[in-house]
Amino acid sequence: MLRPIKLAAISLLRAGGVFSLVANSRWRQQRLLILCYHGVSLEDEHLWRPFLYVEPQVLEQRLATLKKGNFSVLPLGEGLQRLRAGTLPARSVSLTFDDGAYDFYRKAYPLLKQYGLPATVYQTTYYTSFERPVFTVMCSYLLWKQRGQVIPDGKSVGLPGPLDLRTDESRAAIVRHLVETSARENRTGLEKDEIAAQLARLLKIDYDELKAKRILQLMNGRELQEIAAHGIDIQLHTHRHRTPDDEGLFRKEIQDNRSTIHALTALNPVHFCYPSGVYRPTFLPWLRKESVLSATTCDAGLAERESESLLLPRYVDHQRRTQLEFESWITGVGDLLAVRRKASQKLVPGRG
Ligand SMILES: [Zn+2]
């Protein structure tokens, strides 16, 4: 359905009382909505990547809606247990945040405390101890900051010819070139950070200022310890935010991720989230061997009792979602209208 028509139809459903009817139905009570967030803007990140960020005021509006509507916001582990046992309370929701960026600590965590809501952070850990901006996303952000320009010469960062920053595609091509060169030359994290610093210089951006603000950095060990001590649930997202096709390398990502989280927080994480939402059927037995109890995707849907535990759907909320869309999903109407989800999950053998 075309988006404006769909939104108009959803608006009519809300006006007609369908939202509360579905929210209070037995059908909805048997399902868990797992909400997915990525970043919460420290500054202008939601303008750069509106599908991955929300402004803090949008997040606050969502939390206020959950509170006001008497939604049962459950810790993820409890939500999943009660889903299986068939004992979910009415209007169940679990909150998850991917990656564990510093902006979670600075923006989301205080709001969660204020509203008294539990949440899970799927923490990727390489940049937890290496306290520098995440290289790939920082390069993309720097280029976006100077969008519209053409830089005459990219030699200082090893790029031939002029740098065209005028389109999403041309900027993405520059990032790809920087990432591929770094991989080919086996650059260390420090060397990559120096490239990012040089790129910032070339673009006349104050890199030290960005670093001081901790934009595009992850939470460090001390911050992770603090949020874990205050009840935030820390779970698995791989050590280096990647899912290799080789079993040994894939399982090492889980092991390194788990041991880093355990060393810092004494938690033993058993819930997993696929980095970038990418999953393959071959991953499932590898996750089972690592004693992973659940895994979430970015496929839209409510989790059902019969859902495969290692392919749980979520609803990804971000800056471009309207409040109406958000409400349609927490009530369950959005899931009823999302017909494509079932088709996408049929790709997995043994289901559907
Ligand atoms: Zn991620």
Quickly list its features.
352 residues, alpha/beta, eight-stranded parallel beta sheet, two-stranded parallel ribbon, 18 helices, disordered C terminus, binds zinc ion
What would your notes on this structure say?
This protein is of the alpha/beta class and 352 residues long. It is 49% helix and 13% strand. It has 18 helices and twelve strands. It has helices spanning 3-15, 18-23, 26-29, 45-48, 56-68, 76-85, 102-115, 126-129, 135-145, 168-184, 189-202, 207-213, 221-229, 247-265, 283-289, 323-331, 333-337, 340-345; strands spanning 32-37, 39-40, 53-54, 72-73, 92-99, 120-123, 150-151, 163-164, 233-236, 271-273, 294-300, 312-316. The strands form three sheets. Strands 1, 4, 5, 6, 9, 10, 11 and 12 form an eight-stranded parallel β-sheet that branches. Strands 2-3 form a two-stranded parallel sheet. Strands 7-8 form a two-stranded antiparallel sheet. β4, α6 and β5 form a beta-alpha-beta unit. The longest helix is centred in the C-terminal third of the chain and has 19 residues, at 247-265. The radius of gyration is 21 Å and the shape is globular. The relative contact order is 0.16. Residues 341-352 have low confidence and may be disordered. The structure holds zinc ion (ZN). The site of zinc ion has 5 residues, from β5.
